[in-house]
Amino acid sequence: MSETRPRGPVIEGWTPPPPPEHRTLVGRHVRLEPLDAEAHAALLYQAYDGHDEVWDYMPAGPFASSAQFHRWMRDITASPDYVFFAIYDTKAEAYGGFASYLRVQPSAGSIEVGYIAMAPRLQRTIAATEAMYLMMKWAFQAGYRRYEWKCDALNLPSRRAAERLGFSFEGVFRQATVVKGRNRDTAWFAAIDAEWPALDEAFRLWLDPSNFDAQDRQRSSLSDLTRLVRVASDPALRR
Question: What percent of the chain has pLDDT over 90?
Fold first, then answer.
């Protein structure tokens, strides 16, 4: 008689979720609009102008002109591999960045958030955090089981952001790819559907107006609220 080998549990009642749509997601501080070159390229180019460091770890950029940026945005938003959103900060009344769903695998219930480029005026704002929350919320409510975040292993700000947002560290893929002629080791993070209820509560508590004073300074940090949900922390951030 052959030995029974362990296998994963049967997933009861789960069906593959739909792919993400080009739709608007609205929060209290931010509006995510389907990224469109005609509507957004010029405004976003102005937000990024003079801040080439935004593109240090990105596959594209920096861009020499608004026209070049427009052409790039037109081409990449036409790709079926990405679902991009322009991020509009409703308090600042300005567009400050974009982000995308990518590596969408409905059959596995897996989806990644990435290609995130936030101009300095959007970074470290309530709107920036809420934008990431709205994208995560849509994915889990749509039925995805796994929500991924990947970044260049040298990009410590991105690794800190992933951990703050409640993603658990899963390791580093060495020599994962080549970007702009340079080696890239890739740090992997993910959140899964079993963690979503607790993460949702953490985000809602953090985003509640009572968590901020008149100068929008937080009373409780999101990192503190998500710490107990994460199953693994990033060792690179403890050095």
Answer: 95
pLDDT in tens, 188-232: 999 999 999 999 999 999 999 999 999 889 999 999 999 999 999
Using only C-alpha atoms, the chain has a radius of gyration, in whole angstroms, of 19
- Cα–Cα distances in angstroms (integers) from residue 139 to residues 99, 104, 134, 234, in the given order: 14, 10, 9, 23
CA distances from 151 to 69, 154, 156, 190, 215 (A): 22, 8, 9, 12, 32
